[in-house]
Each structure stands twice: as structure tokens, then as C-alpha cells.
Amino acid sequence: MRADRFGGPALSLFRMVIGLLFLTHGLASLLGVFGGNRGSGDPVPLGEWPGWWAALIQALCGALVLVGLFTRPAALLASGSMAYAYFVVHQPEALLPLRNHGELSVLFCWSFLLIAVLGPGNWALDALRRPSGVAEVTPIRANDDPCRPDGGVSGAGARAGAAEPAHQLGLAGDERGEIA
Q: What is the pLDDT, as a whole number, of residue 51?
């Protein structure tokens, strides 16, 4: 069993949970549901800067990240909005997130940055939008060697046509890595 086969689904689940949490946080502030803005039971007044606009970003980006549609740009916008929230709202009160109550902003900021960098995972609507024939970026594996002339992939995962065929190099079957 290969542990890397769980990477895509795990990333998808991580993305969905973070998106759902961000969506509910935004809806609480916009509509006054789930306890309302900061637990007051009330929504943020319409158009108020920056609270209403932040809640709108949270609801929209949270929904997009949840379903995996336009994931990278939505996650980048969400990450930036949480960095803004931390540095403008929380950090002036105290330096450390534990003292200024900015832990949630920091966690959302770094979680969305991770999603923006790594992508949506296997279970996303972005996978349906991708044109056929265009593959998703594949991470470098531990056994890849970028200094090798065949592109760094050894064994069964070698790229087709990346190196000279073994028969042109004059190698016998066992020297090509074949099992007799």
C-alpha cells in the first residue's frame, strides 16, 4: 500500500472543511445566522467597512473553495483577507495571536495559502473545468533525481521517451531493470 495515494483525497477533504468553516463564518456575519457576528446574533450592517465586505469575501470564497471551483484564486483572496484581518484588526492589540485573539485569522490565512499553492485535490469542480489533455502539476517524488538525463524518474514511473531506449544503449535485459 502506498501512502501517497491518499494525498489527493486528504487535500480535498482539508479544502472542503476549511471552505465550509469559512462559508459559515461569513454567513454568520452577513445574515446573523449561527450566532451572528461575533456571537451577537446580529448581522454586520450592510456595506459597513471592513466587516460587511470581509463577510462577503468569507461567504463567496468559502463557497468556491468548498466545491473546488476557481479554488486557487478564491483561496488566495481568502488568505489575503485573513492576513489583512490579522494585521489591521488583531495585531495592534498585541503582537502574539494568543494575546490578540487572532488565532482564527492566522489559521485561515495559512490554510488558504496552502490550498492556493497545492491546488484543490482530486475531488473538485476545477477538475471538470480543466481542458482534456492538460495534466495537473505532479509533485516531485522522493526517488526523483533531477540530475539524471532521463528527467530524474527511475523504475516503473519513468517517463516515456525521456531517455534513450535500452536496446540503443546496448544493455541486456537485467541491466535495463527488467526481471528475468
A: 86
Angle among Cα 30, 34, 40 to the nearest 5 degrees reads: 75
Least confident among 35-39, 45-49, 89-93, 162-166: 162-166
Q: Report how far residue 31's alpha carbon sits from residue 177's, in angstroms, rounded to the nearest whole number.
A: 63
Please indicate whether residue 87 or residue 130 has the higher confidence score (pLDDT).
Answer: 87
What is the 8-class DSSP label of residue 80? Answer: H
For helices 103-118 and 51-67, give the axis angle rounded to 10 degrees: 40
pTM, two decimals, is 0.70
Residue 153 pLDDT greater than 80, yes or no: no
Lookup: cell for 176:
535495463
Closest-CA residue to 130 (of 79, 74, 76, 72) = 72
- CA 4 to chain CA centroid, Å, is 16
**Count of residues in the chain:** 180
CB atoms within 10 A of CB 17: 13
d(CA 163, CA 153): 10
110, 83 in Cβ contact below 8 A?
A: no
The CA R_g of the chain, rounded to the nearest whole Å, is 23
User: Can you read off the three cell numbers belonging to residue 44?
Assistant: 454586520
Q: Which amino acid, residue 77?
A: L
179 residue type, one letter: I
